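Session log. Operator J.P. requested a structure for one protein chain; no other inputs attached. Running the standard single-chain path with token output.
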Amino acid sequence: MLLGCPLLFSLCETIHRIRSKLGQYMTIAPQQKGSAEKMGVERPSRISFPDLMETARTFPDEIRADANRQTFTLAASIIRHFLGQPWYQDHIVQDAENSYPPGFLRLDFSSDFERERKTARFLDFAEMLFNLQHIEGFDDRIDQMRAGQIEATFAEFDFGRFLYLHDIAFRFVEATGVRGKDYDCAIKYADGREACADAKCRLEETEMRAETVRNSLNKARTNNLPSDAPGIVFVKVPQAWLEQQEVRLGIRDVVKSFLHNTERIVSVVVYATHMMAVAENTMILMRHRFEEYPNLKHRFDMSKSWTLFKDYKVPDEWGGMHPKWVRIFSQGFVMRDK
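Structure written below.
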């Protein structure tokens, strides 16, 4: 099944002009003390779409007059709200000379390609933070980001988006570092059952071999998932892996072999984010492609279905994205007064 959304990233050329002034107008709302604190940092308050509209109205006229500049500034406001100005400065900000050290979320102006790639990631990150802020365990993932686990936590947010868009009820599980109790999410079925889910990600530079998926499956089963509860392993692979039939079939064989030798895992899901340029390269279409493999011989309740996904046609009126996902930046512009 493919589920997609259009993402327009035409604002990169404006970043040089505004980044030095961002600190002057990046506050969304006063942060309020939450019920729990870690690392001596207050938990950020939750923000609504009207909060974003009000924030955009406070931007100077020179920002509001340029949709691209407004988009970038609002994205910066969201990230700064949840992670703070010091973190934003340490991990996002870059100068014209590219003198700050590179990082997973650090803006990069060394080439047109890097500028586009990092700006796309920057906008994507801000939109994920806004949409996933009400998921239980969100604050723990923010703590991980603050502690420097940036790329791994970004991948967990991306995994959370995948579940959220497919109407799968879940919560982020606090990392323990304890073998067998260190999985990513708890998934809740409609009848109240829960399964423990762990996600693994094969990087783009990983050699295209189905056998590498076996390593991810074994690691999740052995190191992360408990032996006394239903487990689900999600493996995200580069999009090219599912586009080539030989590799796709090889992955299928590896997964089936893995499931044949375990009763602890009720299902394996292999998925990829498929991105393609459309509309004369002015838009990027992002879709999820996946294959779900149920285990037919697990040790848990066999009278119930543990399948999570249903194959259905995405309604045309959705415009390619589930309507509950707030597309703040995915159309290439932000809110404007009517």
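Operator note: The chain has two domains: 1-157, 166-320.
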